[in-house]
Amino acid sequence: MPNKTIYVADDDLPLFQRAQELVGGNLSSTVVTALRRLIHLEEGREAGFEEIVLQVGRDGARQVRFQGSLLGEWQEMGDEQVRNLTVYRSRKGKLVLHTHTAAWSDYPTGPAAGDMKEWKYWRRFFGIGDRAFDWGDYEYEIFDEVTALKGRIPDKLYRKVADIVEHPQIEELDI
To answer: 13-23 and 27-46 are packed helices; what angle lies between their axes, rounded to 10 degrees?
Structure first.
């Protein structure tokens, strides 16, 4: 097996030791693990994917993470609730539907909601800047085919997502 020598600055030794503790192996396996992760992320980024972190569960208390690209978004505001639908394509070609449903009756009020007289709370309410709706139920579903989304999302969003899936988002012109 060929040997490779890695020179580490004295200041970086604690970093290498901590990485080795986390991986639970020797220094060589630690470096290989880190390089595999770096290559995986960078190849995904080069292919147009980014790290997606989705809120999950009641009030978005948990998170799931994957590499993907945004295909479309939809927001419905009604008298009873607001519903946000977001569709992603994962790096492995799966479709991820992220749904957030929040009942207006559950909207935080009082001191926890902040003073609505301040502009920053109105900006938040209208979705400018920070997440506007950080209460409610967050769910995600994974689908193999775009046709599985038909009837689960509004037709207009479905047409957009299906078009992107069937055609490249960016077409390189050799002109």
So the answer is: 90
Which tens digits make up the pLDDT trace of 47-101? 888 999 999 999 888 999 999 999 999 999 888 888 999 999 999 999 999 999 9
Whole-prediction pTM value? 0.73
CB 43 within 8 A of CB 122: no
Residue ranges of the domains in the chain? 1-46, 49-166
Per DSSP, helices labelled H in the chain are 13-23, 27-46, 119-125, 155-166
Tokens of 16: 């290498």
Could you list the beta-strand ranges (E) of the chain.
50-58, 62-77, 81-90, 95-103, 137-143
